[in-house]
């Protein structure tokens, strides 16, 4: 079973498995930020990837600016579509580890 099916996520501070909709970790008491949404990121990458919007959404503002500066070449748009496919195929757990553990 994936963590989502079990209704749990991992505390951003101590890594303890906690209820997915918990606002505060019962173990360490640290407030949990709302998780970034994998499908939202995938859709942003697909439709607005050429402008790096998904990078800003995922907290990679540096890359977002690079994409924005290069958007006239259409290369970021192509990369964005490839990234959206990866985001679509990625498991929620993998996504959480990659993009929801820095907050
Ligand atoms: Zn904790």
Characterise the protein shown here.
It is a single chain. The chain is mostly helical. It folds into 2 domains: 1-34; 36-103, no CATH class. It is 50% helix and 6% strand. The protein has helices at residues 3-6, 38-48, 53-57, 61-69, 75-89, 92-99; strands spanning 8-10, 17-19. It has a two-stranded antiparallel ribbon with strand order 1-2. β1 (8-10) and β2 form a beta hairpin. It is elongated, with a radius of gyration of 15 Å. The two termini are 25 Å apart. 23% of the residues are buried. The mean pLDDT is 90. The site of zinc ion has 8 residues, from loops. Zinc ion binds next to loops.
Keywords:
6 helices; mainly alpha; binds zinc ion; 103 residues; single chain; 2 domains; two-stranded antiparallel ribbon
Uncertain runs with pLDDT below 50, 5 residues or more?
none
Mean pLDDT over the full residue set: 90
Strand content: 5-15%
Helix share, percent:
40-55%
- What shape does the CA trace take? elongated
Give the tally of β-strands: 2
Total number of domains:
2
Compounds present?
zinc ion
Count of helical regions: 6
Strand order of the largest sheet: 1-2
User: Tell me about the biggest sheet?
Assistant: 2 strands, antiparallel
Gyration radius, rounded: 15 Å
Structural class by sheet pairing and helices? mainly alpha
**SSE order in H/E notation?**
HEEHHHHH
Distance between termini?
25 Å
């Amino acid at each position: 079973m994936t963590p989502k099916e079990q209704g749990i996520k991992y505390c951003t501070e101590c890594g303890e498995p906690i209820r997915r909709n918990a606002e505060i970790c019962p173990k360490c008491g640290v407030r949990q930020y709302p998780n970034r949404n994998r499908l939202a990121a995938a859709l942003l990458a697909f439709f607005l990837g050429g402008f790096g919007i998904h990078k800003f959404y995922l907290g990679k503002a540096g890359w977002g600016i690079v994409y924005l500066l290069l958007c006239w070449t259409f290369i970021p748009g192509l990369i964005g579509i490839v990234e959206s496919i990866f985001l679509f195929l990625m498991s929620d757990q993998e996504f959480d580890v990659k993009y929801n553990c820095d907050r």
